[in-house]
Amino acid sequence: MARMYTDSDNYSDIANAIRELNGSSDTYTPTQMATAIRALVRVTGVKGDAESSYRTGDVNLTPEDLGIDGEYAKLGVVSDEDEKLSVYVK
Fold first, then answer.
1. Domain range for 82
2. Domain for residue 47, yes or no?
Protein backbone atom coordinates (compact mmCIF):
# COMPACT_ATOMS: atom_id res chain seq x y z
CA MET A 1 0.00 0.00 0.00
CA ALA A 2 1.30 3.42 -0.92
CA ARG A 3 1.79 5.98 1.80
CA MET A 4 -0.21 9.16 1.56
CA TYR A 5 0.64 12.34 3.34
CA THR A 6 -1.56 15.19 4.39
CA ASP A 7 -1.13 18.32 6.45
CA SER A 8 -2.82 19.75 9.52
CA ASP A 9 -5.04 22.01 7.38
CA ASN A 10 -6.83 18.96 5.99
CA TYR A 11 -7.38 17.55 9.48
CA SER A 12 -8.65 20.92 10.68
CA ASP A 13 -11.11 21.09 7.77
CA ILE A 14 -12.44 17.61 8.59
CA ALA A 15 -12.75 18.42 12.30
CA ASN A 16 -14.54 21.70 11.48
CA ALA A 17 -17.00 19.84 9.23
CA ILE A 18 -17.71 17.33 12.01
CA ARG A 19 -18.30 20.13 14.52
CA GLU A 20 -20.56 21.97 12.09
CA LEU A 21 -22.76 18.89 11.67
CA ASN A 22 -22.86 17.70 15.27
CA GLY A 23 -23.00 21.15 16.88
CA SER A 24 -20.15 20.44 19.29
CA SER A 25 -16.93 22.22 20.09
CA ASP A 26 -15.01 18.96 20.61
CA THR A 27 -11.48 18.54 19.37
CA TYR A 28 -10.53 15.43 17.40
CA THR A 29 -7.33 13.58 16.73
CA PRO A 30 -7.07 11.95 13.31
CA THR A 31 -7.78 8.53 14.86
CA GLN A 32 -11.00 9.84 16.47
CA MET A 33 -12.40 11.36 13.27
CA ALA A 34 -13.80 8.17 11.71
CA THR A 35 -15.80 7.39 14.84
CA ALA A 36 -17.09 10.96 15.00
CA ILE A 37 -18.15 10.81 11.35
CA ARG A 38 -19.95 7.48 11.85
CA ALA A 39 -21.87 9.00 14.76
CA LEU A 40 -23.24 11.70 12.43
CA VAL A 41 -25.14 9.23 10.28
CA ARG A 42 -27.95 7.75 12.30
CA VAL A 43 -31.69 7.62 12.29
CA THR A 44 -33.32 8.36 15.61
CA GLY A 45 -36.88 7.53 14.60
CA VAL A 46 -39.32 7.10 11.73
CA LYS A 47 -42.91 8.19 11.21
CA GLY A 48 -45.37 7.75 8.37
CA ASP A 49 -47.60 10.63 7.24
CA ALA A 50 -50.62 8.99 8.87
CA GLU A 51 -48.85 8.58 12.24
CA SER A 52 -48.65 11.10 15.05
CA SER A 53 -45.47 9.96 16.82
CA TYR A 54 -42.03 8.65 15.89
CA ARG A 55 -41.06 5.00 16.37
CA THR A 56 -37.59 3.65 17.17
CA GLY A 57 -35.95 0.24 16.96
CA ASP A 58 -37.05 -2.30 14.37
CA VAL A 59 -39.93 -0.62 12.55
CA ASN A 60 -42.38 -2.03 10.03
CA LEU A 61 -44.18 0.75 8.15
CA THR A 62 -47.30 -0.41 6.36
CA PRO A 63 -48.98 1.42 3.47
CA GLU A 64 -51.61 2.62 5.94
CA ASP A 65 -48.90 4.12 8.20
CA LEU A 66 -47.68 6.12 5.21
CA GLY A 67 -51.14 7.26 4.20
CA ILE A 68 -51.23 5.02 1.12
CA ASP A 69 -54.80 4.04 0.31
CA GLY A 70 -56.25 1.16 -1.69
CA GLU A 71 -55.45 2.84 -5.00
CA TYR A 72 -51.86 1.62 -4.71
CA ALA A 73 -50.60 -1.85 -5.57
CA LYS A 74 -47.53 -3.62 -4.23
CA LEU A 75 -44.97 -3.69 -7.03
CA GLY A 76 -42.42 -5.86 -5.28
CA VAL A 77 -39.83 -6.13 -2.56
CA VAL A 78 -36.30 -4.79 -2.82
CA SER A 79 -33.95 -6.36 -0.32
CA ASP A 80 -30.36 -7.03 0.56
CA GLU A 81 -28.79 -8.91 3.44
CA ASP A 82 -30.09 -6.63 6.19
CA GLU A 83 -32.76 -4.38 4.69
CA LYS A 84 -36.08 -4.92 2.96
CA LEU A 85 -38.21 -2.30 1.20
CA SER A 86 -41.63 -2.94 -0.30
CA VAL A 87 -42.35 -0.76 -3.33
CA TYR A 88 -45.87 0.49 -4.09
CA VAL A 89 -47.18 2.12 -7.28
CA LYS A 90 -50.40 3.89 -8.13
1. 56-90
2. no
Note the Cα 53 to chain centre separation in Å.
19
- The residues that bridge with 79 in the sheet, in sequence order, are 84
Dump the DSSP string for 62-78: -TTTTT--TT-EEEEEE
Domain presence at residue 24:
yes
- The average pLDDT across 50-64 equals 82
Give the C-alpha separation, 87 to 70, whole Å.
14
Q: What is the pLDDT of residue 32?
A: 92
Whether the predicted model's global pTM rises above the 0.70 cut:
no
